[in-house]
Amino acid sequence: MGRPLARRSSAERSRVARGAPPAVRVLRMLRRNIFLGLCVLLPIAIYAQSLGNSFVTWDDGLLILENPIIRRFTLHNIFLAFTSYDPELYIPLTFLSYQMNYAIGVLEPFGYHLGNLMLHIANAILIWRVFIAFTANCSGESRRSATVCARAA
Q1: I need a surface site. Which of 30, 56, 87, 146 has the fewest CB within 10 A?
Q2: Neighbours of 2 (CB within 10 A)
Q3: What is the largest CA-CA distance in the chain?
Q4: How confident is the prediction for the chain on average, in pLDDT?
Q5: Given CA atoms 85, 91, 92, 97 in this order, what sign does their dihedral have?
């Protein structure tokens, strides 16, 4: 039997997992995929209603509708995205995403909202994978503590 599973190296845990009964392997796979599914489905459930909305009058006029930097996806405009700022923010990656949205759908709000939804999903998956990587070698109490901290954040 040997050492408890929590105190084994990752290679040992992997060997034990491969030798686990099929039902245990299926449950582990489902648990991994449930979190992945939540990372995809929760942002869709929360932001799907925004896909049919138009631009808002708050800052979309300044950042999208009247912004010459996003009108073309060229090296010069990419340079401008990193060297200019709106009166309050330095947001070059936002300008780059707006440039790509404009290149695909010009000023159709659906494309901008869909792009933001995809970015939210990608970030949720990224944060989940970082959490898994940071807690991969944790055992018992330290993994529970990390989980409580992640839920609190």
Answers
A1: 87
A2: 8
A3: 68
A4: 78
A5: negative
Q: Which two tokens stand for residue 75?
A: 């090296």
Side chain identity, residue 88: E
Query: Which parts of 19-153 fold into alpha helices (H)?
Result: 22-47, 60, 75-83, 92-105, 109-135, 140-152
Taking the C-alpha atoms of residue 12 and residue 16, their distance in angstroms, rounded to an integer, is: 6
What's the distance, CA 119 to chain centroid? 6
pLDDT of residue 143: 58
Cβ-based neighbours of 147, under 8 Å, separated by 6 or more: 135
d(CA 11, CA 135): 15
On whether the CB atoms of residues 101 and 118 are closer than 8 A, the answer is no
pLDDT in tens, 32-88: 778 888 888 888 998 888 888 888 888 787 888 888 888 888 899 899 989 887 667
